[in-house]
């Protein structure tokens, strides 16, 4: 793979800071508008994730699915951090778009076992989070349960190791974020912090370890 490939995609990703920020604003219920600092963070985060995904996977047929994951991940993270919710307007279409993109990739490459892995990965993470939501309703929300299915598709397509690594990393990152917030006196042991960004960050850790 040529070096220019991830670099070019990183530039395109970084340039999407404004449109992705605007997309997040449209999902907010309070009509909030973000200034340039948030747009810069969104653009930098998108560029870094796009570069990482392109570097790890290369110019493969399934790459569009993972670039789509980057786009929705950034928007979902902004909304969840701001309003502590994961909008169905993104989650539900993604439950169709990601399987469709991965199915197209499997059809072109004849990688049907990978597509089966995607379905099983989504089912496994969905079942795990649903169980946790039923056992501890205050910790895991229904939005997190649905997001688990979303991230399970692209992780499962890459194999079971990314599913395990991505799932575990989400909980690890969430725990570290909670400890940091408590140490900074921004939260207490009973505070409810948005877990979606940690799940999404963990998902990309899983992708990078594929």
UniProtKB/TrEMBL annotation:
Which ranges does the record mark as transmembrane? 36-57, 63-82, 89-108, 114-136, 157-183, 189-209
GO-annotated molecular function: aspartic-type endopeptidase activity
Does the record carry Ribonucleoprotein as a key word? no
Where is it found, in Gene Ontology cellular component terms? plasma membrane
Which Pfam families does this UniProt record tie to the protein? Peptidase_A24 (PF01478)
Q: Where is the Prepilin type IV endopeptidase peptidase domain?
A: 68-177
UniProt keyword Membrane, yes or no: yes
> What name is this protein filed under?
Prepilin peptidase
Q: Which organism is it from?
A: Cryobacterium ruanii
């Amino acid at each position: 793979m040529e070096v220019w490939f991830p670099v070019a995609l990183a530039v395109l990703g970084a340039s999407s800071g404004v449109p992705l920020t605007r997309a997040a604003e449209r999902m907010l219920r309070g009509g909030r508008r973000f200034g340039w600092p948030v747009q810069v963070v969104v653009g930098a985060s998108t560029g870094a994730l796009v570069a990482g995904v392109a570097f790890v996977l290369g110019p493969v047929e399934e790459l569009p699915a993972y670039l789509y994951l980057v786009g929705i991940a950034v928007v979902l993270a902004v909304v969840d951090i701001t309003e502590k919710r994961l909008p169905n307007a993104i989650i539900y279409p993604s439950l169709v778009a990601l399987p469709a993109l991965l199915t197209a990739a499997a059809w072109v490459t004849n990688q049907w076992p990978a597509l089966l892995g995607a379905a099983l990965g989504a089912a496994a993470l969905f079942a795990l989070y649903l169980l946790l939501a039923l056992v501890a309703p205050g910790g895991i929300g229904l939005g997190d349960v649905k997001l688990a299915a979303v991230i399970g598709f692209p992780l499962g397509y890459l194999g079971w190791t990314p599913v395990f690594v991505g799932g575990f990393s989400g909980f690890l990152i969430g725990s570290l974020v909670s400890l940091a917030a408590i140490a900074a006196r921004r939260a207490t042991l009973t505070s409810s912090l948005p877990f979606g960004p940690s799940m999404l960050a963990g998902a990309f850790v899983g992708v990078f370890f594929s």
